[in-house]
Protein backbone atom coordinates (compact mmCIF):
# COMPACT_ATOMS: atom_id res chain seq x y z
CA UNK A 1 0.00 0.00 0.00
CA UNK A 2 1.14 3.54 -0.73
CA UNK A 3 2.41 4.96 2.61
CA UNK A 4 1.07 8.42 1.84
CA UNK A 5 -2.42 6.99 1.33
CA UNK A 6 -2.12 4.90 4.48
CA UNK A 7 -1.08 7.92 6.53
CA UNK A 8 -3.94 9.90 5.02
CA UNK A 9 -6.43 7.19 5.97
CA UNK A 10 -5.06 7.05 9.51
CA UNK A 11 -5.43 10.81 9.78
CA UNK A 12 -9.02 10.69 8.55
CA UNK A 13 -9.83 7.83 10.94
CA UNK A 14 -8.30 9.75 13.83
CA UNK A 15 -10.30 12.84 12.93
CA UNK A 16 -13.52 10.78 12.82
CA UNK A 17 -12.75 9.32 16.25
CA UNK A 18 -12.02 12.74 17.68
CA UNK A 19 -15.25 14.16 16.28
CA UNK A 20 -17.18 11.14 17.57
CA UNK A 21 -15.49 11.41 20.95
CA UNK A 22 -16.46 15.04 21.14
CA UNK A 23 -20.00 14.01 20.20
CA UNK A 24 -20.12 11.53 23.08
CA UNK A 25 -18.79 14.20 25.39
CA UNK A 26 -21.82 16.32 24.59
CA UNK A 27 -24.16 13.83 26.32
CA UNK A 28 -23.47 15.25 29.78
CA UNK A 29 -23.60 18.81 28.50
CA UNK A 30 -26.85 18.24 26.65
CA UNK A 31 -28.92 16.86 29.50
CA UNK A 32 -27.40 19.43 31.89
CA UNK A 33 -28.72 22.04 29.47
CA UNK A 34 -32.22 20.53 29.53
CA UNK A 35 -31.82 18.81 26.17
CA UNK A 36 -32.28 15.17 25.20
CA UNK A 37 -30.54 13.54 22.25
CA UNK A 38 -32.53 12.87 19.09
CA UNK A 39 -33.01 9.34 17.75
CA UNK A 40 -30.42 9.99 15.05
CA UNK A 41 -27.89 11.33 17.56
CA UNK A 42 -28.43 8.41 19.93
CA UNK A 43 -27.81 5.87 17.17
CA UNK A 44 -24.70 7.70 15.98
CA UNK A 45 -23.32 7.76 19.51
CA UNK A 46 -23.92 4.04 19.95
CA UNK A 47 -22.39 3.45 16.52
CA UNK A 48 -19.26 5.28 17.67
CA UNK A 49 -19.09 3.10 20.78
CA UNK A 50 -19.43 0.02 18.57
CA UNK A 51 -16.56 1.18 16.36
CA UNK A 52 -14.40 2.16 19.33
CA UNK A 53 -14.76 -0.82 21.68
CA UNK A 54 -14.50 -4.53 20.90
CA UNK A 55 -16.83 -5.26 23.82
CA UNK A 56 -19.67 -3.28 22.17
CA UNK A 57 -22.00 -4.17 19.32
CA UNK A 58 -24.76 -2.11 17.71
CA UNK A 59 -27.11 -4.07 15.49
CA UNK A 60 -30.36 -3.66 13.62
CA UNK A 61 -32.79 -6.12 15.21
CA UNK A 62 -36.08 -5.53 13.41
CA UNK A 63 -38.26 -2.91 11.79
CA UNK A 64 -40.58 -0.23 13.15
CA UNK A 65 -43.79 1.37 11.91
CA UNK A 66 -41.80 4.49 11.04
CA UNK A 67 -39.89 2.56 8.40
CA UNK A 68 -36.70 2.84 10.46
CA UNK A 69 -34.78 -0.04 12.04
CA UNK A 70 -35.05 -0.99 15.68
CA UNK A 71 -31.54 -1.04 17.14
CA UNK A 72 -30.03 -3.14 19.88
CA UNK A 73 -26.80 -2.29 21.70
CA UNK A 74 -24.88 -4.96 23.59
CA UNK A 75 -21.94 -4.73 25.98
CA UNK A 76 -20.24 -8.10 26.47
CA UNK A 77 -16.85 -8.10 28.21
CA UNK A 78 -15.45 -11.04 26.22
CA UNK A 79 -16.81 -9.86 22.87
CA UNK A 80 -19.37 -12.68 22.67
CA UNK A 81 -22.69 -11.47 21.29
CA UNK A 82 -24.61 -14.73 20.82
CA UNK A 83 -27.45 -15.00 23.38
CA UNK A 84 -27.15 -18.80 23.46
CA UNK A 85 -23.42 -18.80 24.14
CA UNK A 86 -23.77 -16.00 26.69
CA UNK A 87 -26.33 -18.04 28.62
CA UNK A 88 -24.08 -21.10 28.40
CA UNK A 89 -21.28 -19.06 29.97
CA UNK A 90 -23.41 -18.55 33.09
CA UNK A 91 -23.52 -14.77 32.88
CA UNK A 92 -26.67 -12.79 33.72
CA UNK A 93 -28.42 -10.77 31.02
CA UNK A 94 -29.66 -7.31 32.03
CA UNK A 95 -32.00 -5.84 29.42
CA UNK A 96 -32.86 -2.10 29.40
CA UNK A 97 -35.66 -0.73 27.22
CA UNK A 98 -35.79 3.03 26.56
CA UNK A 99 -38.15 5.43 24.87
CA UNK A 100 -41.31 3.37 24.75
CA UNK A 101 -42.82 6.80 25.48
CA UNK A 102 -40.35 9.20 23.79
CA UNK A 103 -41.76 12.16 25.71
CA UNK A 104 -40.15 10.48 28.73
CA UNK A 105 -36.55 10.26 27.48
CA UNK A 106 -34.59 10.07 30.77
CA UNK A 107 -33.51 6.50 30.09
CA UNK A 108 -32.35 7.31 26.58
CA UNK A 109 -29.72 9.74 27.85
CA UNK A 110 -29.01 7.79 31.04
CA UNK A 111 -28.26 4.60 29.08
CA UNK A 112 -25.87 6.46 26.79
CA UNK A 113 -24.05 7.85 29.80
CA UNK A 114 -23.98 4.39 31.38
CA UNK A 115 -22.68 2.67 28.25
CA UNK A 116 -19.91 5.21 27.64
CA UNK A 117 -18.73 5.09 31.27
CA UNK A 118 -18.70 1.30 31.40
CA UNK A 119 -16.85 0.91 28.11
CA UNK A 120 -14.29 3.66 28.71
CA UNK A 121 -13.55 2.31 32.18
CA UNK A 122 -14.33 5.67 33.78
CA UNK A 123 -17.20 4.04 35.69
CA UNK A 124 -15.99 1.80 38.52
CA UNK A 125 -19.09 -0.35 38.02
CA UNK A 126 -17.57 -1.69 34.79
CA UNK A 127 -16.13 -4.52 36.89
CA UNK A 128 -19.63 -5.98 37.19
CA UNK A 129 -19.57 -6.68 33.45
CA UNK A 130 -17.40 -9.70 34.26
CA UNK A 131 -20.56 -11.61 35.15
CA UNK A 132 -23.30 -9.61 33.42
CA UNK A 133 -24.06 -8.77 29.79
CA UNK A 134 -25.86 -5.49 29.21
CA UNK A 135 -28.44 -5.27 26.40
CA UNK A 136 -29.94 -1.85 25.61
CA UNK A 137 -32.73 -0.79 23.28
CA UNK A 138 -31.54 2.79 22.55
CA UNK A 139 -34.99 4.07 21.62
CA UNK A 140 -37.92 1.70 21.11
CA UNK A 141 -40.62 4.06 19.80
CA UNK A 142 -38.75 5.48 16.82
CA UNK A 143 -41.81 7.11 15.22
CA UNK A 144 -42.71 8.90 18.44
CA UNK A 145 -39.09 10.00 18.88
CA UNK A 146 -39.05 11.56 15.41
CA UNK A 147 -42.22 13.49 16.28
CA UNK A 148 -40.39 16.01 18.52
CA UNK A 149 -41.93 19.17 19.92
CA UNK A 150 -41.68 21.45 22.98
CA UNK A 151 -45.40 20.79 23.48
CA UNK A 152 -45.75 17.01 23.75
CA UNK A 153 -45.77 16.88 27.57
CA UNK A 154 -47.91 19.66 29.03
CA UNK A 155 -47.15 18.82 32.68
CA UNK A 156 -43.45 18.00 32.37
CA UNK A 157 -40.41 20.06 33.33
CA UNK A 158 -38.24 19.62 30.24
CA UNK A 159 -36.40 18.72 28.18
CA UNK A 160 -36.91 21.64 25.81
CA UNK A 161 -38.03 19.19 23.11
CA UNK A 162 -39.27 15.67 23.54
CA UNK A 163 -40.89 12.97 21.48
CA UNK A 164 -44.56 11.96 21.34
CA UNK A 165 -46.24 9.14 23.28
CA UNK A 166 -47.86 7.51 20.23
CA UNK A 167 -45.76 5.77 17.60
CA UNK A 168 -46.01 6.18 13.83
CA UNK A 169 -49.42 4.41 13.99
CA UNK A 170 -50.43 6.54 16.99
CA UNK A 171 -50.26 3.45 19.21
CA UNK A 172 -49.18 3.47 22.84
CA UNK A 173 -46.56 0.74 22.63
CA UNK A 174 -46.79 0.06 26.36
CA UNK A 175 -50.22 -1.44 25.73
CA UNK A 176 -49.22 -3.55 22.73
CA UNK A 177 -47.40 -6.61 24.05
CA UNK A 178 -50.29 -9.04 23.58
CA UNK A 179 -52.11 -7.65 20.55
CA UNK A 180 -48.82 -6.85 18.73
CA UNK A 181 -50.36 -4.30 16.36
CA UNK A 182 -47.06 -2.51 15.77
CA UNK A 183 -43.93 -3.61 13.95
CA UNK A 184 -41.96 -2.12 16.84
CA UNK A 185 -43.46 -4.50 19.37
CA UNK A 186 -43.29 -7.50 17.06
CA UNK A 187 -39.58 -6.83 16.64
CA UNK A 188 -39.00 -6.37 20.37
CA UNK A 189 -40.95 -9.51 21.30
CA UNK A 190 -38.70 -11.55 19.03
CA UNK A 191 -35.62 -9.91 20.55
CA UNK A 192 -36.85 -10.67 24.08
CA UNK A 193 -37.61 -14.26 23.16
CA UNK A 194 -34.11 -14.62 21.72
CA UNK A 195 -32.29 -13.01 24.66
CA UNK A 196 -34.48 -14.37 27.50
CA UNK A 197 -33.20 -11.74 29.98
CA UNK A 198 -32.77 -12.43 33.67
CA UNK A 199 -33.46 -8.80 34.59
CA UNK A 200 -35.56 -6.34 32.61
CA UNK A 201 -35.84 -2.56 33.19
CA UNK A 202 -38.18 -0.19 31.34
CA UNK A 203 -37.51 3.56 31.74
CA UNK A 204 -40.32 6.15 32.08
CA UNK A 205 -41.36 9.50 33.58
CA UNK A 206 -44.51 9.69 35.71
CA UNK A 207 -47.50 12.00 35.93
CA UNK A 208 -49.45 12.57 39.13
CA UNK A 209 -48.90 13.95 42.61
CA UNK A 210 -46.01 16.21 43.65
CA UNK A 211 -43.48 14.93 46.20
CA UNK A 212 -39.73 15.28 46.90
CA UNK A 213 -38.58 12.04 45.25
CA UNK A 214 -37.00 12.35 41.81
CA UNK A 215 -37.27 8.62 41.08
CA UNK A 216 -39.80 5.91 41.87
CA UNK A 217 -39.91 2.22 41.05
CA UNK A 218 -42.53 -0.31 39.96
CA UNK A 219 -42.00 -4.02 40.51
CA UNK A 220 -44.35 -6.91 39.78
CA UNK A 221 -46.74 -7.56 42.69
CA UNK A 222 -45.50 -10.54 44.67
CA UNK A 223 -48.70 -12.52 44.21
CA UNK A 224 -48.56 -12.32 40.43
CA UNK A 225 -45.10 -13.80 39.95
CA UNK A 226 -43.70 -17.14 41.07
CA UNK A 227 -43.06 -17.57 44.83
CA UNK A 228 -39.29 -17.98 44.41
CA UNK A 229 -39.02 -14.64 42.63
CA UNK A 230 -41.47 -12.93 44.97
CA UNK A 231 -39.44 -13.88 48.05
CA UNK A 232 -36.19 -12.94 46.34
CA UNK A 233 -37.51 -9.52 45.29
CA UNK A 234 -39.05 -8.61 48.64
CA UNK A 235 -36.29 -9.95 50.88
CA UNK A 236 -33.15 -9.27 48.85
CA UNK A 237 -33.19 -7.32 45.61
CA UNK A 238 -35.63 -4.50 46.35
CA UNK A 239 -34.19 -3.68 49.82
CA UNK A 240 -30.71 -3.62 48.26
CA UNK A 241 -31.77 -1.23 45.49
CA UNK A 242 -33.63 1.11 47.85
CA UNK A 243 -30.70 1.16 50.27
CA UNK A 244 -28.24 1.77 47.44
CA UNK A 245 -30.22 4.73 46.15
CA UNK A 246 -30.10 6.32 49.60
CA UNK A 247 -26.34 6.60 49.08
CA UNK A 248 -26.87 8.62 45.89
CA UNK A 249 -28.39 12.13 45.67
CA UNK A 250 -31.66 10.42 44.69
CA UNK A 251 -33.49 8.50 47.38
CA UNK A 252 -36.15 6.29 45.80
CA UNK A 253 -39.79 5.58 46.61
CA UNK A 254 -42.22 2.96 45.35
CA UNK A 255 -44.25 4.28 42.43
CA UNK A 256 -46.75 6.87 43.64
CA UNK A 257 -50.26 6.00 42.55
CA UNK A 258 -52.42 7.66 45.17
CA UNK A 259 -55.42 5.83 46.56
CA UNK A 260 -57.17 9.12 47.22
CA UNK A 261 -56.44 12.70 46.18
CA UNK A 262 -52.87 12.67 47.52
CA UNK A 263 -50.22 10.22 48.79
CA UNK A 264 -51.14 11.05 52.39
CA UNK A 265 -54.11 8.72 51.98
CA UNK A 266 -51.89 5.87 50.83
CA UNK A 267 -50.44 4.56 47.58
CA UNK A 268 -51.36 1.52 45.48
CA UNK A 269 -49.06 -0.99 43.82
CA UNK A 270 -49.35 -1.29 40.05
CA UNK A 271 -50.76 -4.51 38.61
CA UNK A 272 -48.60 -5.22 35.57
CA UNK A 273 -50.93 -7.15 33.28
CA UNK A 274 -49.39 -8.75 30.17
CA UNK A 275 -50.19 -5.82 27.87
CA UNK A 276 -47.36 -3.86 29.53
CA UNK A 277 -43.65 -4.42 28.89
CA UNK A 278 -42.81 -5.65 32.37
CA UNK A 279 -46.06 -7.60 32.58
CA UNK A 280 -45.11 -9.38 29.39
CA UNK A 281 -41.47 -10.06 30.28
CA UNK A 282 -42.39 -11.41 33.71
CA UNK A 283 -44.60 -14.04 32.03
CA UNK A 284 -41.28 -15.58 31.00
CA UNK A 285 -39.70 -15.21 34.46
CA UNK A 286 -37.59 -12.13 33.85
CA UNK A 287 -37.39 -10.12 37.06
CA UNK A 288 -38.94 -6.92 35.72
CA UNK A 289 -38.82 -3.31 36.91
CA UNK A 290 -40.18 -0.02 35.60
CA UNK A 291 -38.39 3.24 36.45
CA UNK A 292 -40.65 6.28 36.85
CA UNK A 293 -38.86 9.60 37.35
CA UNK A 294 -40.88 12.62 38.50
CA UNK A 295 -42.15 14.97 35.80
CA UNK A 296 -41.64 18.16 37.87
CA UNK A 297 -37.96 17.55 38.61
CA UNK A 298 -35.26 19.07 36.35
CA UNK A 299 -34.43 16.89 33.36
CA UNK A 300 -30.78 16.57 34.39
CA UNK A 301 -31.82 15.13 37.76
CA UNK A 302 -34.23 12.73 36.10
CA UNK A 303 -31.46 11.47 33.82
CA UNK A 304 -28.92 11.15 36.64
CA UNK A 305 -31.35 9.39 38.99
CA UNK A 306 -32.13 6.86 36.23
CA UNK A 307 -28.39 6.44 35.57
CA UNK A 308 -27.74 5.78 39.25
CA UNK A 309 -30.49 3.16 39.44
CA UNK A 310 -29.35 1.37 36.27
CA UNK A 311 -25.85 1.21 37.74
CA UNK A 312 -27.21 -0.27 40.97
CA UNK A 313 -29.21 -2.90 39.08
CA UNK A 314 -26.05 -3.80 37.16
CA UNK A 315 -24.08 -4.01 40.41
CA UNK A 316 -26.71 -6.21 42.00
CA UNK A 317 -26.72 -8.51 38.96
CA UNK A 318 -22.93 -8.65 39.03
CA UNK A 319 -22.80 -9.65 42.69
CA UNK A 320 -25.85 -11.91 42.83
CA UNK A 321 -25.75 -13.51 39.38
CA UNK A 322 -25.62 -17.10 40.66
CA UNK A 323 -28.54 -16.46 43.02
CA UNK A 324 -30.55 -14.80 40.24
CA UNK A 325 -29.98 -17.85 38.02
CA UNK A 326 -31.04 -20.21 40.82
CA UNK A 327 -34.18 -18.18 41.54
CA UNK A 328 -35.10 -18.18 37.85
CA UNK A 329 -34.66 -21.96 37.65
CA UNK A 330 -36.86 -22.39 40.74
CA UNK A 331 -39.46 -20.04 39.25
CA UNK A 332 -39.60 -22.13 36.09
CA UNK A 333 -40.19 -25.27 38.13
CA UNK A 334 -42.99 -23.51 40.00
CA UNK A 335 -44.57 -22.10 36.86
CA UNK A 336 -44.48 -25.41 35.00
CA UNK A 337 -46.13 -27.12 37.97
CA UNK A 338 -49.00 -24.65 38.26
CA UNK A 339 -52.53 -26.04 38.30
CA UNK A 340 -54.13 -22.66 37.57
CA UNK A 341 -53.31 -19.04 36.78
CA UNK A 342 -55.07 -15.86 37.86
CA UNK A 343 -56.54 -13.98 34.91
CA UNK A 344 -57.88 -10.93 36.76
CA UNK A 345 -57.02 -9.34 40.09
CA UNK A 346 -58.73 -6.96 42.48
CA UNK A 347 -57.04 -4.74 45.04
CA UNK A 348 -57.30 -6.17 48.55
CA UNK A 349 -57.93 -3.09 50.70
CA UNK A 350 -58.10 -5.18 53.87
CA UNK A 351 -54.33 -5.80 53.80
CA UNK A 352 -52.07 -2.81 54.32
CA UNK A 353 -48.35 -2.29 54.82
CA UNK A 354 -47.10 0.95 56.32
CA UNK A 355 -44.07 2.53 54.65
CA UNK A 356 -42.11 5.73 55.32
CA UNK A 357 -42.83 8.50 52.83
CA UNK A 358 -41.82 12.10 52.26
CA UNK A 359 -44.41 14.39 50.77
CA UNK A 360 -45.68 17.89 50.29
CA UNK A 361 -48.92 18.88 51.97
CA UNK A 362 -51.89 18.81 49.61
CA UNK A 363 -53.93 22.01 49.85
CA UNK A 364 -56.68 23.88 48.06
CA UNK A 365 -57.03 27.43 46.78
CA UNK A 366 -59.32 29.25 44.33
CA UNK A 367 -58.45 28.78 40.68
CA UNK A 368 -57.57 31.98 38.83
CA UNK A 369 -58.97 30.36 35.67
CA UNK A 370 -62.26 28.79 36.74
CA UNK A 371 -62.88 30.34 40.14
CA UNK A 372 -63.47 26.88 41.62
CA UNK A 373 -61.21 25.29 44.26
CA UNK A 374 -58.05 23.72 42.83
CA UNK A 375 -55.59 21.32 44.39
CA UNK A 376 -51.93 22.16 44.76
CA UNK A 377 -48.95 20.79 46.67
CA UNK A 378 -47.20 23.21 48.99
CA UNK A 379 -43.45 22.62 48.68
CA UNK A 380 -42.94 24.94 51.64
CA UNK A 381 -44.89 22.50 53.81
CA UNK A 382 -43.07 19.16 53.56
CA UNK A 383 -43.99 16.20 55.74
CA UNK A 384 -42.65 12.78 56.63
CA UNK A 385 -44.84 9.98 57.91
CA UNK A 386 -45.72 6.37 57.50
CA UNK A 387 -48.48 5.94 54.93
CA UNK A 388 -50.57 2.94 53.88
CA UNK A 389 -49.13 0.92 50.99
CA UNK A 390 -51.73 -1.26 49.30
CA UNK A 391 -49.74 -3.92 47.50
CA UNK A 392 -51.89 -7.02 47.92
CA UNK A 393 -54.44 -8.27 45.42
CA UNK A 394 -57.23 -10.84 45.40
CA UNK A 395 -57.80 -13.20 42.47
CA UNK A 396 -61.24 -12.67 40.94
CA UNK A 397 -60.95 -14.81 37.78
CA UNK A 398 -58.82 -17.94 37.49
CA UNK A 399 -58.36 -20.67 34.90
CA UNK A 400 -57.21 -24.24 35.23
CA UNK A 401 -54.21 -25.15 33.12
CA UNK A 402 -55.28 -27.64 30.42
CA UNK A 403 -53.06 -30.27 28.87
CA UNK A 404 -53.62 -28.84 25.37
CA UNK A 405 -55.30 -25.99 23.61
CA UNK A 406 -56.64 -26.73 20.13
CA UNK A 407 -56.56 -23.82 17.68
CA UNK A 408 -57.99 -24.01 14.14
CA UNK A 409 -55.38 -22.80 11.66
CA UNK A 410 -57.95 -20.42 10.12
CA UNK A 411 -57.26 -17.94 12.93
CA UNK A 412 -54.05 -16.79 11.28
CA UNK A 413 -53.58 -13.57 13.26
CA UNK A 414 -53.53 -15.53 16.50
CA UNK A 415 -51.29 -18.24 15.00
CA UNK A 416 -48.83 -15.57 13.91
CA UNK A 417 -48.65 -14.05 17.39
CA UNK A 418 -48.10 -17.42 19.00
CA UNK A 419 -45.29 -18.09 16.56
CA UNK A 420 -43.65 -14.75 17.36
CA UNK A 421 -43.62 -15.90 20.97
CA UNK A 422 -41.97 -19.21 20.04
CA UNK A 423 -44.98 -21.26 21.07
CA UNK A 424 -44.59 -24.90 20.11
CA UNK A 425 -47.60 -26.05 18.06
CA UNK A 426 -48.27 -29.44 16.49
CA UNK A 427 -50.34 -29.41 13.26
CA UNK A 428 -52.83 -32.24 12.84
CA UNK A 429 -51.78 -34.56 9.99
CA UNK A 430 -55.35 -35.20 8.80
CA UNK A 431 -58.98 -34.23 9.26
CA UNK A 432 -60.44 -35.67 12.45
CA UNK A 433 -63.23 -35.38 15.00
CA UNK A 434 -62.30 -34.90 18.65
CA UNK A 435 -64.29 -34.63 21.85
CA UNK A 436 -63.15 -31.34 23.41
CA UNK A 437 -63.96 -28.82 26.12
CA UNK A 438 -65.73 -25.92 24.46
CA UNK A 439 -66.55 -22.45 25.80
CA UNK A 440 -69.68 -20.57 24.79
CA UNK A 441 -69.62 -16.83 25.41
CA UNK A 442 -72.62 -16.23 27.65
CA UNK A 443 -72.06 -12.54 28.33
CA UNK A 444 -69.61 -9.78 27.49
CA UNK A 445 -69.48 -6.01 27.49
CA UNK A 446 -67.53 -3.73 25.18
CA UNK A 447 -66.00 -0.30 25.73
CA UNK A 448 -67.75 2.59 24.00
CA UNK A 449 -64.56 4.30 22.83
CA UNK A 450 -61.62 2.50 21.18
CA UNK A 451 -58.69 1.75 23.46
CA UNK A 452 -55.35 1.78 21.66
CA UNK A 453 -57.01 0.78 18.41
CA UNK A 454 -59.45 -1.83 19.81
CA UNK A 455 -62.96 -1.97 21.20
CA UNK A 456 -61.96 -4.23 24.06
CA UNK A 457 -64.33 -6.62 25.83
CA UNK A 458 -64.73 -7.02 29.58
CA UNK A 459 -66.95 -8.77 32.14
CA UNK A 460 -66.81 -11.91 30.01
CA UNK A 461 -68.77 -14.93 31.19
CA UNK A 462 -68.56 -18.38 29.62
CA UNK A 463 -70.33 -21.72 29.74
CA UNK A 464 -68.21 -24.83 29.34
CA UNK A 465 -69.48 -27.82 27.39
CA UNK A 466 -68.10 -31.09 26.05
CA UNK A 467 -68.64 -31.40 22.30
CA UNK A 468 -67.40 -33.33 19.34
CA UNK A 469 -65.60 -30.85 17.10
CA UNK A 470 -64.61 -31.34 13.48
CA UNK A 471 -60.96 -30.40 12.99
CA UNK A 472 -59.04 -30.07 9.76
CA UNK A 473 -55.56 -31.11 8.77
CA UNK A 474 -53.22 -28.29 9.78
CA UNK A 475 -55.21 -27.23 12.85
CA UNK A 476 -52.94 -26.90 15.85
CA UNK A 477 -52.56 -28.95 19.01
CA UNK A 478 -50.75 -26.74 21.51
CA UNK A 479 -49.14 -28.48 24.50
CA UNK A 480 -49.47 -26.04 27.38
CA UNK A 481 -46.59 -27.13 29.63
CA UNK A 482 -43.86 -25.40 27.68
CA UNK A 483 -41.95 -22.15 28.40
CA UNK A 484 -44.94 -20.15 27.12
CA UNK A 485 -47.29 -21.78 29.65
CA UNK A 486 -48.49 -18.61 31.37
CA UNK A 487 -48.55 -16.63 28.14
CA UNK A 488 -50.84 -19.30 26.63
CA UNK A 489 -53.26 -19.31 29.54
CA UNK A 490 -53.38 -15.51 29.78
CA UNK A 491 -54.03 -15.07 26.05
CA UNK A 492 -56.18 -18.10 25.13
CA UNK A 493 -58.56 -18.12 28.10
CA UNK A 494 -61.35 -15.74 26.98
CA UNK A 495 -61.90 -14.29 30.45
CA UNK A 496 -58.30 -13.10 30.68
CA UNK A 497 -57.68 -9.39 31.22
CA UNK A 498 -55.42 -9.43 28.18
CA UNK A 499 -56.76 -12.42 26.28
CA UNK A 500 -57.00 -12.46 22.52
CA UNK A 501 -60.77 -12.43 23.00
CA UNK A 502 -60.47 -9.24 25.06
CA UNK A 503 -58.50 -7.66 22.21
CA UNK A 504 -61.11 -8.57 19.54
CA UNK A 505 -59.24 -11.34 17.73
CA UNK A 506 -62.27 -13.64 17.83
CA UNK A 507 -65.12 -11.18 17.26
CA UNK A 508 -66.27 -13.11 14.20
CA UNK A 509 -67.91 -15.74 16.43
CA UNK A 510 -70.10 -13.03 17.98
CA UNK A 511 -71.95 -12.67 14.66
CA UNK A 512 -74.80 -14.94 13.66
CA UNK A 513 -74.58 -16.02 10.02
CA UNK A 514 -77.90 -17.91 9.77
CA UNK A 515 -81.34 -16.61 10.74
CA UNK A 516 -85.01 -17.62 10.65
CA UNK A 517 -88.14 -16.02 9.27
CA UNK A 518 -90.80 -15.92 12.01
CA UNK A 519 -93.79 -16.61 9.76
CA UNK A 520 -92.10 -19.72 8.35
CA UNK A 521 -90.59 -20.95 11.62
CA UNK A 522 -93.95 -20.90 13.48
CA UNK A 523 -94.90 -24.45 12.50
CA UNK A 524 -91.41 -25.75 13.24
CA UNK A 525 -91.45 -24.12 16.67
CA UNK A 526 -94.84 -25.64 17.42
CA UNK A 527 -93.52 -29.11 16.53
CA UNK A 528 -90.34 -28.65 18.59
CA UNK A 529 -92.37 -27.74 21.67
CA UNK A 530 -94.71 -30.68 21.12
CA UNK A 531 -91.88 -33.19 20.67
CA UNK A 532 -89.59 -31.93 23.47
CA UNK A 533 -91.32 -31.78 26.88
CA UNK A 534 -88.23 -30.34 28.60
CA UNK A 535 -88.03 -27.51 26.06
CA UNK A 536 -91.78 -26.92 26.55
CA UNK A 537 -91.35 -26.72 30.30
CA UNK A 538 -88.41 -24.28 30.06
CA UNK A 539 -90.29 -22.13 27.55
CA UNK A 540 -93.45 -21.95 29.66
CA UNK A 541 -91.46 -21.21 32.81
CA UNK A 542 -89.68 -18.22 31.26
CA UNK A 543 -92.89 -16.92 29.72
CA UNK A 544 -94.57 -17.01 33.12
CA UNK A 545 -91.70 -15.29 34.92
CA UNK A 546 -90.69 -12.66 32.35
CA UNK A 547 -93.35 -10.19 31.25
CA UNK A 548 -91.19 -8.66 28.53
CA UNK A 549 -90.48 -12.09 27.10
CA UNK A 550 -94.15 -13.01 27.23
CA UNK A 551 -95.06 -9.82 25.34
CA UNK A 552 -92.49 -10.33 22.57
CA UNK A 553 -93.42 -13.04 20.04
CA UNK A 554 -90.15 -12.72 18.14
CA UNK A 555 -88.07 -13.32 21.29
CA UNK A 556 -90.18 -16.39 22.04
CA UNK A 557 -89.55 -17.83 18.59
CA UNK A 558 -85.86 -16.93 18.84
CA UNK A 559 -85.65 -18.75 22.19
CA UNK A 560 -86.93 -21.91 20.50
CA UNK A 561 -84.76 -21.42 17.40
CA UNK A 562 -81.58 -21.10 19.48
CA UNK A 563 -82.33 -24.46 21.10
CA UNK A 564 -83.17 -26.18 17.84
CA UNK A 565 -80.89 -28.17 15.51
CA UNK A 566 -81.04 -25.24 13.05
CA UNK A 567 -79.18 -22.88 15.36
CA UNK A 568 -75.54 -22.73 14.24
CA UNK A 569 -73.18 -24.34 16.71
CA UNK A 570 -70.42 -21.83 16.01
CA UNK A 571 -72.43 -18.79 17.08
CA UNK A 572 -70.87 -17.54 20.36
CA UNK A 573 -68.66 -20.63 20.47
CA UNK A 574 -65.15 -19.59 21.37
CA UNK A 575 -62.90 -21.15 18.70
CA UNK A 576 -60.07 -22.27 20.99
CA UNK A 577 -60.76 -25.64 22.54
CA UNK A 578 -59.28 -27.44 25.52
CA UNK A 579 -58.13 -30.90 26.44
CA UNK A 580 -57.92 -31.04 30.21
CA UNK A 581 -55.05 -33.49 30.58
What strand line-up does the widest sheet have? 1-2-4-3-5-9-6-7
* Overall spatial form: globular
CATH class of the largest domain: Alpha Beta
End-to-end gap: 71 Å
Name the average pLDDT. 94
Written overview of the protein:
It is a single chain. The longest helix has 38 residues, at 299-336. The protein has helices at residues 3-32, 39-52, 83-88, 106-120, 142-146, 183-195, 227-246, 277-283, 299-336, 412-420, 485-492, 518-531, 533-545, 547-550, 553-562, and strands spanning 56-63, 69-75, 92-97, 132-137, 199-206, 215-219, 252-254, 267-268, 287-294, 340-347, 353-366, 373-390, 393-400, 404-407, 426-427, 432-446, 457-471, 476-479, 577-579. It folds into 4 domains: 3-336, 3-Layer(aba) Sandwich (Aminopeptidase); 353-394, no CATH class; 395-512 and 571-579, no CATH class; 518-562, no CATH class. Helix 1 (3-32) packs across helix 2. With 581 residues, the protein is α/β, with parallel strands linked by helices. The chain has 15 helices and 19 strands. 35% of the residues lie in helices and 25% in strands. The strands form 5 sheets. It has an 8-stranded mixed beta sheet with strand order 1-2-4-3-5-9-6-7, with helices on both faces. Strands 15-18-14-19 form a 4-stranded antiparallel beta sheet, with no helix packed on it.
